[in-house]
Write a structure and sequence with these properties.
Largest sheet: none
Number of strands: 0
Number of helices: 11
Helix content: over 70%
Structural class: mainly alpha
Number of domains: 1
CATH architecture: Orthogonal Bundle
CATH class: Mainly Alpha
Strand content: under 5%
């Protein structure tokens, strides 16, 4: 009579089939190779340029309304060779940087106070919410009365267009810091100022950096408005001047060049932020 021991034979170990190296382009929140990333963006821009070229070459649209890409490039080369482009770009970049810095210097401390103390949030937020919905263009006459027609008026326009949005973003960046971290600081015997300096501010730096990138882009969008009145030089002033003479190629080139400068500043913040806050990708 046979007896069974009750022991089962071990199953054979099957080695997994070698996985093919695939680029998961549509995976949620997964990185894709850098070359593919930039190629996709460049391809989309080239597609738009191709359509633009075909439409203008076939004369489907009057050149007065939409000049060809070749005409836009020729206008840019002419401005660069005459030196007008660099003079206008220098004046506009100066106004953008100063206006944005003034707005940021006020937005950061006020936003930090609003994000950490309900008292300051109750004081400032109703007024900020009121002003940020006001059209900046409608405030031009008042800014002329208050600041004259020199660069101070341009700085004021850029400040109004940027500050009231930026301060709320800074407040939200600070509020995103987990309360558990703040409680740990109190447990370790830190005071309120130490918690703000050593916990809240470092934890919110990645978000603040991204806020700086976004709001600088907003400042660029207000450039034409800022240079609308009594500006002797600047990209926005050149666009408004071209409008009087229906110089469409100069208008479009000015718009595209402002967009290019804004894109370069945006990528600057992205590259520097990726180096400063490498650990944020692990979240």
């Amino acid at each position: 009579m046979e007896t069974t021991t009750g022991r089962s034979e071990p199953l054979p170990v099957v080695s997994p089939a070698p996985r093919r190296r695939r680029w998961r382009l549509f995976a949620l929140r997964e990185d894709i190779p850098g070359r593919i990333y930039f190629a996709l963006g460049a391809s989309f821009i080239l597609l738009i340029l191709l359509i633009w070229t075909v439409v203008t070459h076939a004369e489907l649209i009057d050149p007065l309304f939409l000049p060809s890409p070749a005409a836009i490039i020729a206008e840019g080369i002419a401005q660069a060779q005459s030196g007008m482009l660099w003079a206008d770009a220098g004046a506009s970049i100066y106004r953008i940087v100063v206006g944005w810095l003034i707005a940021t210097l006020f937005a950061v401390p006020i936003g930090i106070l609003m994000g950490n103390f309900k008292f300051f949030e109750a004081v400032f937020e109703p007024f900020i919410d009121l002003v940020r919905y006001m059209p900046v263009v409608a405030l031009i006459p008042l800014t002329i009365l208050w600041a004259g027609t020199d660069d101070s008026q341009k700085f004021l326009i850029l400040f109004i267009g940027t500050f009231f949005q930026e301060v709320l973003l800074v407040m939200d960046n600070v509020k995103s810091v987990p309360k558990d971290l703040i409680k740990v600081g109190y447990t370790l015997g830190m005071g309120r100022f130490e918690v703000l300096r050593d916990i809240v501010l470092p934890a919110s730096l990645p978000g603040l950096w991204d806020t700086f990138r976004i709001t600088l882009g907003w400042t660029w969008t207000y450039l034409v408005v800022a240079e609308l009145v009594a500006a002797r030089s600047g990209l926005g002033r050149r666009i408004m001047e071209a409008q009087r003479y229906l110089a469409t190629e100069r208008i479009i080139f000015g718009i595209l060049f402002i967009g290019l400068l804004g894109l370069l500043t945006d990528y600057f913040f992205k590259v520097v932020g990726a180096r400063l806050f490498r650990w944020i990708k692990e979240r």
